[in-house]
């Protein structure tokens, strides 16, 4: 609990990802999204981004299979995992914005994702509340199993999007409409 209060939720512990996003945005702004890369450089960017992203997600696999990491390695992971993940994500954004996204850009640009993408920030804001309500309202202990975790994930996912939709319609949409009226957009 002390680690959550003192480290996890503090905004300055997220400065690395903020800076990565700032740098990617600045590069895209300064180049006006007009960047020429050799195909080998673009491919290398994708390989590095995929490697970094997969390492942050699956790099700890061994600790759950009887191969604990040393305190120093675990500290290094905790200190860098979010920034490393964002470097990989930053490449995806850069590549898709500059024409090197390929099939990833095709998937991310699919029109069917537009309604969900408009709710993502609202989902980000309400998901802790949804999770707390779901987990604190349980009458029995949570039994950890693969199917149970999948069930919990989809339940929380659908509940979060439902609450986000209602919050968006009740709060965000009226203010967007008001903004259009005030600023005559």
Automatic annotation (TrEMBL):
<keyword id="KW-1133">Transmembrane helix</keyword>
<keyword id="KW-0812">Transmembrane</keyword>
<protein>
    <recommendedName>
        <fullName>Nose resistant to fluoxetine protein 6</fullName>
    </recommendedName>
</protein>
<feature type="transmembrane region" description="Helical">
    <location>
        <begin position="149"/>
        <end position="175"/>
    </location>
</feature>
<feature type="transmembrane region" description="Helical">
    <location>
        <begin position="84"/>
        <end position="107"/>
    </location>
</feature>
<dbReference type="InterPro" id="IPR052728">
    <property type="entry name" value="O2_lipid_transport_reg"/>
</dbReference>
<feature type="transmembrane region" description="Helical">
    <location>
        <begin position="12"/>
        <end position="29"/>
    </location>
</feature>
<keyword id="KW-0472">Membrane</keyword>
<feature type="transmembrane region" description="Helical">
    <location>
        <begin position="41"/>
        <end position="64"/>
    </location>
</feature>
<feature type="transmembrane region" description="Helical">
    <location>
        <begin position="119"/>
        <end position="137"/>
    </location>
</feature>
């Amino acid at each position: 609990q002390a680690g959550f209060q003192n480290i996890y939720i503090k905004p300055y512990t997220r400065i690395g990802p903020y800076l990565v996003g700032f740098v990617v945005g600045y590069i895209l702004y300064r180049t006006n999204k007009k960047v020429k890369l050799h195909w080998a450089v673009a491919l290398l960017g994708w390989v590095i981004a995929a490697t970094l992203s997969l390492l942050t997600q699956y790099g700890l696999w061994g600790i759950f299979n009887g191969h604990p990491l040393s305190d120093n390695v675990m500290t290094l992971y905790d200190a860098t995992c979010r920034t490393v993940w964002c470097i990989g994500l930053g490449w995806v954004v850069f590549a898709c914005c500059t024409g090197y996204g390929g099939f990833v850009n095709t998937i991310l640009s699919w029109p069917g994702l537009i309604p969900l993408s408009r709710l993502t920030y609202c989902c980000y804001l309400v998901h802790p509340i949804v999770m707390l309500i779901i987990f604190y309202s349980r009458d029995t202990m949570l039994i950890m199993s693969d199917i149970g975790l999948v069930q919990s994930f989809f339940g929380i996912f659908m509940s979060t999007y439902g609450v986000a939709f209602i919050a968006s319609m009740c709060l965000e949409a009226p203010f967007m409409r008001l903004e259009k009226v005030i600023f005559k957009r």
